[in-house]
## 1
Amino acid sequence: MKKQKISDAVIHRLPRYYRYLDDLFNKGVVRISSNSLGSKMDITASQIRQDLSCFGEFGQQGYGYNVAELRSEIGHILGIDSGHRLIVVGAGHLGHALLQNFDFQKLGFQIDSAFEVSPALIGTSIRNITIRSMDELEEYVTQYRPDVAVLTVPQHVAQSLADRLIALGIRGFWNFTNVELSTQEPGVFFENIHFADTLLTLSYRISRS
């Protein structure tokens, strides 16, 4: 892999490449050209070639891309085979829905456990994932060393909880609290998910059409 700074725009396109290639792979498609892939994804073939060139040489002129090989390579770049371990903090409605319906393992994440403050939920399980008390959080993270925390907790505790988890060694946060989290600690990353942003984007588009 080339040693260079990869832009956020390229990084955010990689999961789309993987998703489309995974769909093609599951349909039995063996190869695809950059033009055909670009047409499906509504981006230019030159943009695809430019993005992929950040990570090495892929495809052959006159042949295109081997779908299975490119899917595997992009999956590797994305860390799907890295064995990331993950905890969910907040097992209320949204946390429950994620645990029940989202296929973390397909993307290479092993769910270790979930944590909650509600006595009614502590000790229950969702798809064989045990819901533990927040009082067990420090001991659990220290012992099992998960990489990522999914946060579905109230806004007013989000930043302090993130700081607490960072101090325990968590390096990645999938943040559904609808507040922007930050840290001065190097090597820690946030993906802040804002449902309202996407809904308002949709509102803009249908209002202007």
## 2
Amino acid sequence: MLLKSIHWLVFGVMQLDPGDRFAQAFHFFLYDSIKIFFLLFVMIAVIGFLRTYLPHDKVARWLTKRGGWGNVFAATFGAVTPFCSCSSIPLFLGFLKAGIPLGVTFSFLITSPLINEYLVVLMLGFFGWKITLLYVASGMLIGIVSGMVLGRMRLERFLVPDMVEGEAVPEAQVHHHFKSRLLFGIDEATQIIRKIWIWIFVGVGVGALIHNYVPEEAVQSVLHRAGAFSVPIATLIGVPLYGSCSAVIPIAVALFQKGIPLGTALAFLMGIAALSVPEAIMLRRAMRIPLIATFFGITTLAIIFTGYAFNALQPLLNR
């Protein structure tokens, strides 16, 4: 419904040319901005409402005591949420405000865009069940291991305090009345939107330009010439780009069909899905640059390692 409404507004009411790149970028900007603002408000309000039922300190201690299990649960939850890298941020911020350990929240933030229902369905159609199953397993592993590594680095000092620390609320107001719990969630979502709205617009704007102005042929040309370095180059090319899985998977398939190794094509897909410039811009409101750089660096290294592993296993997967 939203997509059709935006399409009608841009190409019907405003009468922009559907074949024009600027019109396509503008359409992308409107759609993703509205979608992300809606998800941001609804998901943070829901998280805020639900966390009035749970003492967040106890939840955080419970997850911490179980060490890697917290990362496993967060990664699993991320795998069943149908979000892109930018749309995952509302839940990520809600988890931080709820006191969930940073490494655990990163496991969710990494896995959520890497694995989701429609990505799995598309991959089954294009790549078959063997590659899809291995992709899902590797995506889970990337999220769990990267989150555990980031958690052990004790990087909480690089979080922006006003984005992750909730104000104290009287016990009776939060924990005994449905209306007060609902209002608490709505107020929390409103406060967060007020703090990061400009970052969302900037991030989606950059993503719209990259999505519509970077030609697929240029990527293919670079990767064909990269040789043994194709995996890290594909990952590094993918990281600055931004797009939905439904748009990225056909590109990965085209790369694979034109002779690019499987792991290289999937590393390109993972780089776009898990990391993006718009995501970094939005996260900047909640994190300082050293934390964003560390998060991107560790996740990028994990994707590169996975790409080389897929390339090594390609003969077996093609049988």
## 3
Amino acid sequence: MNKVFQLVFYFILTIFSFSSWSKNSITWYETNTPPVFIHEGPCKGQGYIQLILEQIIEGLTDYEHRFETATGARILYNLKQEEKSCYPTLIKTKQREEFIAFSKPVELTPTLRLITRKGFIPDINQNESIDLLALINKKYSILLIKERSYGLFIDDILSQLETGNIQRIVTAGNQTILKMLLKKRTDMALAYPFEVNFFVNDLQMFEQLDLYSIKGLPQYQLGHVGCPKNAWG
């Protein structure tokens, strides 16, 4: 009888082990870019895409969810390798559609803005869109995050600029860049409005900045969940 009980016990244990082992899993990639993802401090875990991701995961109860932080370039590379991984909010482009399966839109955000000190461009008001290429070619300097992609449209403009006009620094987010802008160590920067709102911690500092929309970019953009373009994705 004990042998029968042992056989049944091991059979049940094997079934549960196999079920647990075979359960489909998703690795969700995150970036270290507050306030999109916030990995430290009092707002840890409260990045706005982290909150969107919580809602997505609630509807995927048949999956085991894992999380990994990586650079944007690494994330796109892994999606291209058809790994069982996804990114919660990607901008859809023709190039990305070649290897990424996109969901329906899950977010709506403003597009990038050009950031300057108040009154730095006196002949343009903040209701106008600026020609980024023409403006920076006037020998203004722009400070950017090293190895960060600003989207195909902006990256193409940046590739046409003289390298002396562009300075890139290693930083986790735009906080350092905005501080350097206010200290007049650069003329301009690129950031999303919600990044400026997050890093500029008081109204007095915010009033020292001008934000301009960029000609050729829409005012808003849609974000989609992006997974490998295969049967699993």
